[in-house]
Amino acid sequence: MSEQTLHARGKLFFLDKEYVAEFVYGGIDGAITTFAVVAGASGAHLSISVVIILGIANLIADGFSMSVGNYFSTKADRDTYDKHVAIEYWEIEHLRDKEIQEIRDIYAKKGFKGELLEQVVQTIIADKDVWVDTMMKEELEMSKDEKTPLQTATVTFIAFVLIGTIPLLSYLAAYVMTIPTEYLFPLSCVLTALGLSIVGYFKSVVTDKSKVRGILETLALGGIAALLSYYVGAILENIFR
User: In 45-117, which ranges are E strands?
Assistant: First the structure.
């Protein structure tokens, strides 16, 4: 990879299509969990300021927690890959004949025979890096993820906060303009549904499924979370008031 490409990636990695999955799942989690907080607070008839405080606290705490989990998950995958690469290099160095036979067996199963099979084997083992890469993909079925732990964590956090802010927009707007209190939660519902629909669309791109199905599934999850939170908030408000 060229230095110019790396520089471009360093500046715009969060817009790279490789990170769509992190953005989608971070966004879904951010929207649903924040909307659940808003719904619960609304069900308990809490004040606007309390809703905003709880919502922002959720955004920061849960967003950071999710990004940290993503960081360590990605790092663990990369460490596992690197460990197996080191093992393959050691085996090539110390168990050369065995590793050559494994390459031969792999391509024999693919239908290569006779002289052509031997040509393929000799071509691969002529370069250790190619040899190891072949063993990783063909024998261990492992491939290196070019996404770094820090970048995946950053994208997750950005998506969580960005999409997760949507359910709070109507309450934040109430501080700079006059909006009847009874309209705030319905507005939050509409805005959250719109945000979830957009994220659901991109989720379907990642999973290569129906766009409509992706949107409806995401909306359903958000709706269930909202209903549970709203009625839990209402019940607790009646119990402790």
Answer: none
Spatial separation of the C-alpha atoms in residues 55 and 167, rounded to whole Å: 9
Residues 6+ apart with CB under 8 A from 200: 28, 214, 215, 216, 217, 218, 219
Largest CA distance in the chain: 84
pLDDT per residue as tens digits for the range 113-170: 999 999 999 999 999 999 999 999 998 888 887 788 998 999 999 999 999 999 999 9
* Cβ-based burial of 39 (10 A; exposed 0-12, middle 13-18, buried ≥19): buried
Q: How many residues does the chain have?
A: 241
Read off the pLDDT of residues 203-239 as tens digits, 9 standing for 90 and up.
777 777 788 887 888 788 777 876 777 777 678 767 7
Structure tokens at 180: 């009847």
Residue 60 burial by CB count (10 A; 0-12/13-18/19+): exposed, middle or buried? middle
Q: In terms of pTM, does the model score above 0.90?
A: no
